[in-house]
Give the backbone structure.
Amino acid sequence: MLSRAAWSVVLRRGGLGTRGKHSLEDSGKTWTRKMPPYTNYHAQRSYPMPDEPFCTELNAEQRALKEKEKGSWTQLSHAEKVALYRLQFHETFAEMNRRSNEWKTVMGCVFFFFGFTGLLIWWQRVYMFPEKPITLTDEWRAKQLQRILDMKANPVQGLASRWDYEKKQWKK
Amino acid sequence: MASSALMKPQMCGLLARCLQFHIVGTFIASLGVAALYKFAVAEPRKKAYADVYRNYDSMKDFEEMKKAGIFQSAK
C-alpha cells in the first residue's frame, strides 16, 4: 500500500476526484458524504488510527455532541461516547479484525491453476516434447548403475551398501 | 459506567516476560536438536563406518573392481 503520508498528500491536492462538500448534485438531491476511495479514512490492523475521522460532515446534533466532547468527558453518557466513537471510527476493533472466508477462495483458485498447468504440460508432453536423450533411456541407465556399483560408490551408508555383491541383488 | 468483572491486564514487564520465554525455549530447543542429531545421526554413522572398515581388505576390493573392468590403467 502506498505510504499513508504520500497518499494523504495526493488526495489533499485534489489529485483524485472533487473535494467539495456536495459531490453529486442534481435536481436538488445532494450527497453530503464523500464516497471511498476519496476519503482519507482507511483503518486496518496494522494502521488502526487514521489521520481523519470517519464522519467529516456532521449534522447539527452531531456538532453539538462534538462541542460537548470539548468539556469534561465524565459528563458524557455511555450512548454519547458510543456515538462519538462511531463518528470517529467506522468499525470497532472486533469488527475490523473479523475473519473471513477469503482463504477458501484463494486456495481454490490456487489449486485450480495447478490443475490447469498440469493439463497444459501433459498436452505438451504428448504433442510437443522431443525424443529423450540417449543417456536417459533405460538401457543406458542400467549400464550406468552397474558401473556405479562396480566402483563401489558410497559403500558405507549409500548406494553400494544396499547391494549384495555375493547374490548380485539389492539387500533385503 | 457499568462495571464488569474483567481482570486487570498485564501492565508492565511484557518484554521481559517475552524475552525469558523465548530465551529458555531457545536453549531447550537447540540443546534438544543437538542431542537428537548426535544420537540419531552421528553415532549410527560412526558405528557404520567402524563396522565396514574393521575387517576391510583393500587389495581384495581392488581386485574385484579390476575384474569388473572400471579401470583404464589396470586391466
